[in-house]
Every structure is written in structure tokens, then in C-alpha cells.
Specification:
Rossmann fold; alpha/beta; two-stranded parallel sheet; about 15% strand
Length: about 190
Amino acid sequence: MFARGFATWAVAAGHNLTIVGFNRGQAEQLSNDIGAGRAAGPGDPLRDNLIFLAMPYNCVLDAWAFYGEQFDGKVVVDVTTPIDVETFEPIYPEAGSVAQEISKGRPGAKILKVFHPRFAGPLAPEQNSNDVRNVLLAGDDAEAKRLVTQFFKQGGLRAIDIGLLRRARELEAVGFLRVALRLSLESILAES
């Protein structure tokens, strides 16, 4: 859901992107669905300097281990919401957040945590409000924040810096509540 939401926005905003899947077919399917993007599989090197992690939490640490040193020196934007996909209960990473967990494992990467409600899927028909434009971000690297702020600005979004990477846990809580609310609303609408 997050990968599809982000990729759709990025293409509409005029950005080029590479979609990496756990297999090339998965990446090609998403690329075909959104009508753009270069598909890559796990054997392909990470050649972009700005990388968005948009995958289920149970896959993040595997991807982190698999690509290892390829993340060093790159800006890595984590949009993961740690949710158990079977129970839809929140997961609480040992380090405090997914972003902090991966930051421990690759100190050479510049990690940011980002939350935007559009990437989590719509709750209601989109309205023209400032809330829809706002992207919340947290991180320790000022240059990475500047780069990502500019990236979002080019696509009509406004990045709001909420502080250091330790604020990632609050963004993940907001992400969980957003998903839980969306699922509850879908259930209510299905019953009506």
C-alpha cells in the first residue's frame, strides 16, 4: 500500500524511479500498474542515491542485510509502519522505531523517517487542504533533510521537520493509527 501510494505520487510529480522487488516480476507488476518506473530485482545493484523503503516491516531487515554496504552514503527514507500483517497489531522495534533499528545496522546511511497520509491510502475523497500537502519527517542528518524536503517540494508537497530520528516512533504510531482507522472505516462501510 505504501509503496504503491508513494510510487504513484512520485511518477505524477515527474520523478524517475526504480522499483526494486523481492523478485523482478513483482517490481515489473507495480511498474506496469503505475505506468512508469524502471523495474529491478534483488540481484541488481542499488544505483540511486535517494532510496525509499516502502515494504512490510518483516521484510525491511532482510532487505537491509541483503543490500548491506550498498546503503552506505545514500539517503534512505523509511516509510514503513511496523504492523503484524496477520493480526494487524503494531510491532514495537527494540530500538524504538524501524528507522532507528536500521540506523543501528548501517551507520554509513543517512536515515530519515517520513509519514504522509496519502501514501497510507485515502480515508475519504481527497480534499484540497493543507493537511494533504504536509509530509512529516524526522532524522539526524540536516543535508539529507534538505534533499528530501526539496524532493517533496518539487512534487507539490511540504515537508515539516519534526525533529531528530528518535521522533520516528511517533510517526510510526501515527501510521499505525491511520491504517487501523482506514480498516475500521472500510469495515463499517461494508456493513452498511
